[in-house]
Each structure stands twice: as C-alpha cells, then as structure tokens.
Specification:
It comes from Nitrospirillum amazonense. By secondary structure, the protein is α+β, with helices and mostly antiparallel strands. Among the domains are: 48 residues, Uridine Diphospho-n-acetylenolpyruvylglucosamine Reductase, domain 2, CATH 3.30.43; 99 residues, 2-Layer Sandwich (Enolase-like, domain 1). Helices cover 26% and strands 19% of the residues. The chain has 11 helices and 11 strands. The chain has a 5-stranded antiparallel β-sheet. Helix 2 links the parallel strand 2 and strand 3. Helix 5 runs antiparallel to helix 8. The radius of gyration is 20 Å and the shape is globular. The N and C termini lie far apart (52 Å). The protein binds flavin-adenine dinucleotide and iron/sulfur cluster.
Length: 325
Amino acid sequence: MRPFTYERAASPADAAAKAASIPGAHFIAGGTNLLDLMKLQIETPAHLIDVNGLGLDTIEETPDGGLRIGALVRNTDLAADARVRRHYGVLSRALVAGASGQLRNVATTAGNLLQRTRCPYFYDPNQPCNKRQPGSGCSAIGGVTRSLGVIGTSNACIATHPSDMAVAMRVLDATVETVRPDGGSRAIPIADLHRLPGDAPHVETVLERGELITAVTLPRPVGGAQLYHKVRDRASYAFALVSVAAIVQPDGGDGGGNGIAWGRVALGGVAPKPWRVEAAEAHLKQGAKQTTALLLAGARPTPDNAFKIKLAERTLAAVLREARA
Ligand SMILES: Cc1cc2nc3c(=O)[nH]c(=O)nc-3n(C[C@H](O)[C@H](O)[C@H](O)COP(=O)(O)OP(=O)(O)OC[C@H]3O[C@@H](n4cnc5c(N)ncnc54)[C@H](O)[C@@H]3O)c2cc1C
Ligand code: SF4
C-alpha cells in the first residue's frame, strides 16, 4: 500500500471542499472496497477523508411518505429497518443477497453505490484495462468474459456494475442527494448516477470531483410484490451473474393477461449500471420472454456470456411466478 494522509471530515461541506481541493483525495466510508483496491495499488489516494463521523447514518421519513436514507447507513441496518422490510421489500432482499454479514455490517449506502467493477482484469495490474488506466486497452475483450456485461457496454469496456442494492434502488426510482464542493446541493435520479462506459470507462458516475453523497431518498411506497432473485456461481458471497429486481402487482386473476396488473423490473449483472427499460414493463403482462427481449434489445454478448440473456428471461419468469403466487 502506498503512504497516504488521513483526516476526519468536520461537515459534509468541509468534506466536499477538501476532496475537491486536495490532490489525490478520496472519501472513505466502510472501506470494504476502497481498502482492497489500495492494497492492490489499483487505487492510490494520497489523502483519505473519513466521512464516518458526519452523522449521515439515520433513516427518516420524508414529508411525502417516502424514506431518506443517510449515506452512512450500514447495509445491515438498512436491510433490517422495519419500514424498509414492510414497504420496500425489494431493497431489503437485494441487500441481504450481497456480500456477507460481516461486510454488510460495515458497508454503507453511498459506498455500495460507488463500489468499482469486479471485472477480473481490472483487479490485475499486469493486464491492460481502460478503466484502471485510460487508453491502455481492454483485456476482457477477447479474454474471459463469463461474468461480464452483455448490454450498455462499449468497445472500450464491457464490465458490469456489481451492486445488488443499486438494482433495487433503480426499480424503486430512488434519488441520490449530494453536497458539491461549492457547498451547494443537488438531487440526482438514480437512473442518471452511473454512466455508460463509451470511450471513457474510467468516468463511472456523473458526480463531480469532491461531490459527496449525503443521502438516498425513496419515493412513497408503491405496494406490489417486491422480489429480488440473484443467480450466482455459489449460494453466498458471490456477485450476480444475473439478478432481477421487480415490483409486481398481480391482477387477482381477472385482468385477462397472465395474472400481472402492472410491474417494474431492473436487471443486475448484465450492464455497467442497473439496467431498466421502462418501456419494456408494459409487456410484463405478455410474460418474461417478451419483456426480456425488449429489456435486452441491442445486447452484444460474447460467446462466453450469451447465456446471460436466457438466464435473465428464466429468472424473470421465476420472479413473475412467485409474484402471482
Ligand atoms: C468479498 C466481497 C464480496 C462482496 N459481495 C458483494 C455482493 O455480492 N453484492 C454487492 O452488491 N456488493 C458486494 N460487495 C461489495 C460491497 O457491497 C462494497 O464493498 C460496499 O458496499 C462498499 O461500501 P463501503 O462503505 O465499504 O465503501 P468504501 O470502500 O468506503 O468506498 C467505496 C467508494 O465510494 C466512495 N464513497 C464512499 N462514501 C461516499 C460518499 N458518501 N460520497 C461519495 N463517495 C463516497 C469512496 O471514495 C470509494 O471510492 C462485496 C465486497 C467484498 C469485499
Ligand atoms: S472490461 Fe472494463 S474493467 Fe474489464 S478490462 Fe476491459 S476496460 Fe478494464
């Protein structure tokens, strides 16, 4: 690990201003991703700004009946919150499908959203990687791609975003609140937080340098059956090959369709960001095959990972079956 300096931020505005003005400064929250990357010298911050003491660790109800989740709320606490379990079940389920109990005890809401990809070549400093070293090339293209993306990718990068929680937040239409280095704040719809790689895969979000996430807000509950199915190579402690976050309202059998009145769906494990195509959701009544065809229209799988398309369809079919039941 390279030497670095460390300080505890005094306030969100102080953290953002310092992160923007000190060369090589990085925020640290739970550290479960950043410290691993520092040990491998994939991230080499010169200065760490610890945001754990900023009091951003509460979950509050909003005036419009939603929830405001502090950026430092731990994944375990968020998953266990009675309001989340009751009204935002897809979020609770996605959280407990991620990592391990010990990691979730430390991992934070903001850190989870901003965790880096799990592309194996990104983690190997001996291999070219446009995300790690812009312009160096992409070792995954033409390499081993089983776990990598099938849609939203580019000729520069085919990595996926690894978060389970973010997929649930996408289907819940969450909003990310931030403080900017000039002290101003803004609200970013989660749909717009993560960027597609294009020709600059190292630029992963729309956050500006030093911008601090302070909270994530969820709109008032929409009801429905809320499910998260994650398919992975082993039963726990593994990232998704494919995951489906869904909110589905069964029609009670009188809707004339396949038992679905309306629904929302987002996919994980297939793209550089949680993947949701709202126009596809009108087709949930026609079933998983039609919906997945629209969700993944334009997919560019590799021979290694083309199975993800059928796997997404089957996982969505299982989710719809469970929702109807
Ligand atoms: C073995 C292992 C297995 C895992 N399995 C899964 C899994 O199955 N599913 C899954 O979803 N995740 C998984 N994870 C990832 C884990 O969920 C993340 O490491 C964790 O959520 C990151 O949160 P953190 O608070 O520790 O972030 P940190 O490591 O502290 O920070 C991560 C990034 O976020 C930035 N950051 C932190 N807080 C803020 C803020 N408030 N504003 C702006 N930037 C900020 C940091 O600068 C850093 O760049 C796994 C991790 C490990 C080590
Ligand atoms: S897919 Fe992206 S992260 Fe993986 S090697 Fe290529 S550029 Fe790097």
